[in-house]
Design goal:
By secondary structure, the protein is an alpha+beta fold. 16% of the residues lie in helices and 38% in strands. Strands 1, 2, 4, 5, 7 and 8 form a six-stranded antiparallel β-sheet that branches. A two-stranded antiparallel sheet has the order 3-6.
Length: 212
């Protein structure tokens, strides 16, 4: 069996949205006043600077090594939570709408991100059981199944007219249904990433080839 990541593919369409600096009201829209309207107009053409951008795969759900006979179907339907992450945005200065910030970060990374208005979910624990991976056991033995997400973190600055009017931090994720299946009786592939090795450490027994 080929071990490694199996991605459950979903058809997603990313919506285009304007980024902007605003000063309150519904969806961040400013309240009345010529000065506030002028400020909002100036901020509509503001620019983002993204700093300390981090992208890493993290293990969120798994099952410890379960025995299957050769030919059995091994799937990820019954994975259990092992770690939880919550989408969050913190700001200092002008409060930019969360959705706009996440959309702007998604455009910067060329990725669909949770909270962008298309890909939803406030916590990584929201897992659709209909989206699962399944493989046939090529040999009798213990198999580990799991789910990972691509965690994304970044600091931002938003400038209008050469002046930073808002700054803060964004935590979200991409690829919310990346699934893994592997045998504890097989050595890890040379290309196996750290999240799969972590799953092997947690789900396989000491001495199993998968932990080597």
């Amino acid at each position: 069996m080929k071990r490694g990541l199996t991605t459950a593919i979903a058809a997603l369409v990313i919506a285009a949205g304007a980024t902007g600096c605003t000063s309150g009201g519904k969806d961040g829209a400013p309240h009345g006043g010529a000065q506030r309207l002028a400020t909002a107009k100036a901020c509509a053409d503001g620019t983002y600077t993204w700093l300390n951008v981090s992208r890493r795969s993290v293990l969120t759900d798994m099952t410890a090594g379960t025995h299957y006979a050769k030919g059995d179907k091994v799937n990820t339907k019954d994975v259990k939570e092992v770690a939880r992450y919550t989408r969050s945005v913190s700001t200092s200065g002008a409060a930019l709408p969360e959705k706009r910030l996440i959309r702007a970060l998604g455009r910067h990374l060329k990725a669909e991100l949770a909270g962008d208005g298309v890909m939803v979910g406030a916590r990584t624990t929201k897992y659709e059981q209909e989206a699962f991976a399944e493989q046939t056991a090529e040999a009798s033995g213990r198999y580990v199944t799991g789910r990972t997400v691509g965690l994304v973190e970044a600091d931002y600055r938003y400038a209008c007219g050469g002046r930073t009017v808002s700054s803060g931090h964004v935590l979200t994720w991409a690829h919310a249904n990346d699934l893994i299946i592997f045998s504890c009786g097989e050595k890890p592939d040379k290309k196996a990433d750290e999240v799969e090795r972590e799953a092997a450490r947690l789900g396989c027994r000491e001495g199993d080839p998968a932990r080597s």
